[in-house]
Amino acid sequence: NRAARLLEVGSGSGRILASIRQRDSELRLTGIDLSAEQTGLARSIHHDIEFVCGNGETLPFADDSFEYVIFFDYLEHIERPRQSLAEVRRVLKPGSHLHLVCPAERQSIYGLSSKLFRRHFKESTAGHIQQFSRRELDALVKEAGLAVVERRYSYHLLGSLMDYTLFALMLHPRVYATYWSGNPYYAKSEAQARSGAFQRLLRLGNAIAYHESKLLGKIAFGATAVHLTAQKPNDAPTTTA
Question: Cα separation of 223 and 216, whole Å?
């Protein structure tokens, strides 16, 4: 049998797919990202993974092409999340799975902050043009014709507070510039992706959030990030009505 195909939508410089490759040498991995710069960097570093420069709202792949589709911190950045999820469903084979991670920023500290300051910091500092609640994310996935089979949560108290503080500080231009130049996911060179004190600080914060989430992963209360696994029904037609 041919190895299963996995697509990451919004793959950036390919670091998540590279991590998957380290764990599974047989999967056929494909990433798609709107940034030609990030796609080019990914191709230059990760030679055994296919990268496509394209729009996740109009995926350039045939119907029923993939056993798995994943995306992380993607829906909140795009103008048409419903269209993108419909495309994900189209390219998934019947019985196959989507796994997504997306912030539910209408809840937790972000919702309180938006009401207090009448602005959402991450819209200007991180490009989060969409804000969802946990219920809205569930509804979007179900509306696309996918059945949610598992829910997990992350970025509870410590993770949310650290994340909120960082992106509030990024309203200052110098902090903003430091973050985007030091963030390994958006690095503009392989050397930049592997070095820097700021990257080490980010890794520390992510490690704290990770261990907190391992402990509280099944608890929705206080969590900002939602992890959903959904399945395309075995008997589903390729397109929705």
Answer: 9
What would the pLDDT profile of 68-104 be if each residue is shown by its tens digit?
999 999 999 999 999 999 999 999 999 999 999 999 9
Round to whole Å and give the CA distance between 20 and 211: 20
pLDDT in tens, 134-177: 999 999 999 999 999 999 999 999 999 998 888 888 888 888 78
Interatomic CA distance for residues 108 and 40, integer angstroms = 37
Q: Beta-carbon neighbour count of residue 116 at 10 Å? A: 8
Which of 146, 31, 24 lies closest to 95, judged by CA? 146
- Residue 223 contacts by C-beta under 8 Å, 6 or more apart in sequence? 104, 108, 153, 154, 155, 156, 160, 213, 216
Question: How would DSSP label each residue in 165-228?
Answer: HHHHHTTSHHHHHHHHHH-GGG-SSHHHHH--HHHHHHHHHHHHHHHHHHHHTT--TT--EEEE
- Residue with tokens 């960082």, as numbered in its chain: 166
Would you state the structure tokens that stand for residue 5, as one six-digit string? Answer: 């195909």
Record the tokens describing residue 215, joined without a space.
Answer: 């402990």
